């Protein structure tokens, strides 16, 4: 609901110099950014980096290193395809986590199934699916659908052709790892979402929205963060 | 700085509950004075001061405290109300909030209390043409995301024909809210809604004396809902647009209502509703697909999770470049190792980072920059200058200002090294005092030696000294004087090199540094802050940036540029009147300021 929006034909144009002045007026200091980085390292479980960063930039760690390391080991296990090890470690840490997160536990088992298929242990995969996953799918239609999707992996010889090939991509492991990480952090009453990804999301969203209102120098490549002149702004 | 004190005065009405926000919003060091300050600044504008002494000043309801709007509101009210306390003009007006009824925008059949919050019906109340409405002093700005107000039904009067809602600026005021085009209302006698029409439709319960009716316009989705005695009644209107003023209408004798625009607590938990709306907005933001990474790495089949993978990769690149930029080499190494380990399967992604960021020499440069930074941070400026000259020989000649700042800092560090011992000195050993003063250090006029140049540079110090009672000091025979001597020689050389420099910042920096000489115990003097090690960091950052720039690398780390761009983009969106921005706040939502 807009009140005084100029029509798109007369979009406001902000010159680069004016925009850069606005950028320079933003209040942010190095300590804020250090904290932003530390927040990511701690929540995502980069124990060594967090420890070194604490030493190099002088920020106190508000979590003990051991708890970061616990999570790091668990997450690494998943990243390396050792789901069994991850489950054992989580249960050592706090057996209630998996008990109280049935969806997470299902996803871990699904990940285990994916790993069996990846390793070509088809007989083991079928056995595991029938014994562990199928009974749970009966209770929950959503789980059943996920299970069926996973079993489709067996239907294609070339996974690049498979419509469910994404399950074999590292991003799938990462997704499972992230869900597990969040559950562990929540169980420890810690923040579970790092701020830095939110910052990037916010930038993408805000720039998309702002495109409808005005023409301004944009950041298109988030990694290089280069300010790209808009066509309209270069002519000024 | 004068603006700051004005701003803090203006914000005397800022509710205390937002103190956490003001803390995290950076620029504002707001103080909370007593209310009287603020009302007086507003009053001065009014013809009859006494009559309106209870008038509400600018104030932000607590549910808006965490929004982007809060920042803009802060900036705009301090601007607009400092100009003779006049009513904000066009641009600023868009950030003003309704705070009271408008005495100049009401039906003649209504009477307004002194504080302009209570409205009584004074007409004959025979038929619908006797209806009487009033608008608030400002429209609801869409940038605030949500606007909520409550109306106390003080008395239902004869019939209780009371309408509560909002309308456009030009809607006639001899009608109840909702009966006209651009007018929306909820009526107490029948509980019906009127949406730009004389015909109502059933909505909620009737309301009468003692009830509190709330009205909320949601600018995120263009809807409105009402509450009765703190309970939500469900969506009332959709597709709202235009400039809308809160409005109420009365129709029969003795009807009386009082509005709460947020100056006291609401019956309805609007803060909680605001939180829910924030969460919804963040769901939308989080669902925004990330742009693809502009390298060929992602040419693998389109993935369900590719947007997420892009995000993670980008975050890793930003963190790594940030660590490299600031020379946090140990962290950078550990992070690189961990990140590669963590992403071991798609090492192609990390190879991309490696290729771009860890080109041969990068790590050595990073270590060298860290050595230089550490030298500055521990106060060993001489070492930092030597290292910079040896490792990055083009930097200092090309950046005279940074070279100056380094030398100035070195002078300050030298003074700092003298400082502790100067204070401890006894008063008796005049020999040493003379010895020191011979070099113009303490600078008694008659003792100052040397040519006109030196006199010239000592002048500003003398001025300051005139007002200072100096006690006679002296120094141990061993060592101390050599510290001071060398500090002074260094200072004189610095003064000599820059005496013809007309740049204001150089002149004032020199003056500041030399003022340390005016005190027997500089560390505990009014300029003692100059000696504080925290002054090293900006110098270290400037030097680091200059070295990076000399290598064709960005002087500001990518991560910082991302933050700045985000902050400006969101603020601009809000300035354009986009209501969704109220539900986000870059400082609160995207920085981790709360911890530590």
Q: What string gives the helices and strands of chain A in order?
A: EHHHHHHHHHHHEEEH
Helix tally of chain B equals 20
Low-confidence stretches of chain A: 1-8
Task: Write down the Rg of chain A.
Answer: 24 Å
User: Could you give the distance between the termini of chain B?
Assistant: 28 Å
Structural class of chain A: mainly alpha
Please tell me what the overall shape of chain B is.
elongated
Assess the beta-strand content of chain A as a share of residues.
under 5%
| Whole-number total of structural domains of chain A | 3
Tell me the helix content of chain B: 40-55%
Radius of gyration of chain B: 33 Å
Major beta sheet, strand line-up of chain B = 1-4-13-6-7-8-9
Secondary structure tally: strands of chain B = 14
Strand proportion of chain B? 5-15%
Low-confidence spans of chain B: pLDDT under 50, at least 5 residues?
1-57, 80-93, 294-304, 341-360, 422-478
Count of β-strands of chain A: 4
Helix content of chain A: 55-70%
Which helices and strands, and how do they pair?
The complex is a heterodimer of chains A (236) and B (596).
Chain A: E1 12-13, H1 16-24, H2 30-43, H3 47-57, H4 65-79, H5 83-93, H6 96-100, H7 102-118, H8 122-139, H9 141-151, H10 170-187, H11 195-211, E2 214-215, E3 218-219, E4 227-228, H12 231-234
Parallel strand pairs in A: 1-2
Antiparallel strand pairs in A: 3-4
Chain B: H1 2-10, H2 19-24, H3 35-43, H4 68-82, H5 90-93, E1 101-106, E2 110-112, E3 118-121, E4 132-136, E5 146-156, E6 163-167, E7 183-187, E8 192-195, E9 201-202, E10 212-218, E11 223-228, E12 231-237, E13 245-250, E14 255-260, H6 270-286, H7 306-325, H8 329-342, H9 347-357, H10 362-377, H11 381-391, H12 395-398, H13 400-424, H14 430-437, H15 452-466, H16 480-498, H17 504-515, H18 536-550, H19 558-575, H20 586-590
Helix pairs in contact in B: 1-4, 7-8, 7-9, 10-11, 10-18, 13-16, 13-17, 13-18, 16-17
């Amino acid at each position: 609901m807009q009140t005084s929006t100029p029509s798109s034909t007369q979009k406001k144009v902000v010159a680069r110099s004016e925009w850069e002045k606005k950028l320079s007026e933003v209040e942010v200091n190095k300590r804020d950014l250090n904290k932003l980085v530390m927040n990511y390292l701690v929540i995502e479980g980069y124990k060594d980096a967090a420890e070194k960063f604490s030493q190099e930039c002088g920020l106190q760690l508000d979590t003990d290193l051991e708890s970061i390391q616990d999570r790091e080991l668990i997450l690494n296990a998943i990243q390396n395809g050792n789901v069994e090890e991850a489950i054992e470690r989580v249960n050592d840490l706090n057996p209630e986590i998996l008990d109280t997160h049935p969806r997470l536990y299902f996803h871990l088992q699904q990940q285990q199934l994916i790993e069996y298929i990846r390793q070509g242990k088809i007989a083991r995969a079928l056995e595991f699916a029938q014994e562990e996953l199928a009974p749970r799918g009966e209770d929950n239609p959503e789980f059943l659908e996920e299970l069926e999707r996973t079993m489709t992996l067996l239907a294609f010889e070339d996974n690049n052709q498979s419509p469910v090939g994404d399950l074999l991509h590292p991003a799938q492991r990462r997704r499972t790892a992230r869900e597990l990480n969040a559950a562990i952090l929540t169980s420890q009453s810690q923040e579970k979402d790092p701020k830095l990804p939110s910052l990037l999301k916010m930038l993408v969203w805000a720039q998309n929205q702002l495109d409808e209102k005005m023409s301004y120098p944009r950041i298109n490549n988030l990694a290089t963060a280069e300010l790209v002149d808009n066509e309209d702004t270069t002519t000024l | 700085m004068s603006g700051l004190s004005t701003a803090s005065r203006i914000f005397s009405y800022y509710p205390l509950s937002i103190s956490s926000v003001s803390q995290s919003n950076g620029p504002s060091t707001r103080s909370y004075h007593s209310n009287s300050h603020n009302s007086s600044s507003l009053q001065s504008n009014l013809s009859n001061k006494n009559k309106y002494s209870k008038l509400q000043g600018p104030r932000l309801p607590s549910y808006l405290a965490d929004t982007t709007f809060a920042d803009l509101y802060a900036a705009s009210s301090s601007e607009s109300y400092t100009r003779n306390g006049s009513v904000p003009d066009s641009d600023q007006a868009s950030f003003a909030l309704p705070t009271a009824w408008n005495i100049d925008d009401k039906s003649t059949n209504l009477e307004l209390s002194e504080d302009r919050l209570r409205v009584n019906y004074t007409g004959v109340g025979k038929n619908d043409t006797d209806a009487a409405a009033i608008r608030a002093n400002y429209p609801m700005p869409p940038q605030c995301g949500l606007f909520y107000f409550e109306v106390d039904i003080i008395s239902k009067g004869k019939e209780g024909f009371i309408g509560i809602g909002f309308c456009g600026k030009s809607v006639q005021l001899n009608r109840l809210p909702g009966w006209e085009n651009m007018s929306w209302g909820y009526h107490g006698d029948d509980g019906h809604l009127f949406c730009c029409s004389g015909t109502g439709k059933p909505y909620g319960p009737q309301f009468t004396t003692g009830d509190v009716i709330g009205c909320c316009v949601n600018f995120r989705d263009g809807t409105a809902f009402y509450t009765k005695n703190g309970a939500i009644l469900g969506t009332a209107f959709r597709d709202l647009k235009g400039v809308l003023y809160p409005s109420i209408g009365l129709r029969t004798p003795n009807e009386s209502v009082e509005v709460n625009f947020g100056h006291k607590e609401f019956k309805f938990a609007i803060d909680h509703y605001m939180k829910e709306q924030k969460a919804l907005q963040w769901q939308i933001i989080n669902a925004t697909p990330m742009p693809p990474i502009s390298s060929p790495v992602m040419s693998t089949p389109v993935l369900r999770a590719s947007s997420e993978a892009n995000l993670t990769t980008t975050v890793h690149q930003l963190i790594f470049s940030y660590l490299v930029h600031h020379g946090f080499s140990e962290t950078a190494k550990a992070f690189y190792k961990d990140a590669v380990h963590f992403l071991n399967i798609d090492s192609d992604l990390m190879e991309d980072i490696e290729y771009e960021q860890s080109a041969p020499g990068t790590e050595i440069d990073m270590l060298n920059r860290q050595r230089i930074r550490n030298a500055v941070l521990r106060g060993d400026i001489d070492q930092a200058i030597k290292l910079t000259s040896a490792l990055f020989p083009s930097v200092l000649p090309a950046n005279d200002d940074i070279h100056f700042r380094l030398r100035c800092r070195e002078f300050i560090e030298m003074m700092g090294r003298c400082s502790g011992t100067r204070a401890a000195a006894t008063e008796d050993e005049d020999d040493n005092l003379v010895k020191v003063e011979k070099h113009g250090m303490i600078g008694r006029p008659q003792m100052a030696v040397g040519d006109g140049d030196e006199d010239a540079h000592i002048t500003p110090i003398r001025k300051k000294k005139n007002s200072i009672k100096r006690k006679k000091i002296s120094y141990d025979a061993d060592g101390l004087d050599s510290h001071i001597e060398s500090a002074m020689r260094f200072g004189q050389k610095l003064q000599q090199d820059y005496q013809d420099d007309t740049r204001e910042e150089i002149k004032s920096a020199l003056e500041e540094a030399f003022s340390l000489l005016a005190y027997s115990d500089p560390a505990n003097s009014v300029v003692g802050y100059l000696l504080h090690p925290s002054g090293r960091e900006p110098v270290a950052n400037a030097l680091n940036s200059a070295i990076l720039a000399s290598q064709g690398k960005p002087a500001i780390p990518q991560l910082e540029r991302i933050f700045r761009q985000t902050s400006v983009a969101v603020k601009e969106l809000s300035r354009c009147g986009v209501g969704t921005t109220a539900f986000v706040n870059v400082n609160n939502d995207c920085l981790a300021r709360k911890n530590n």
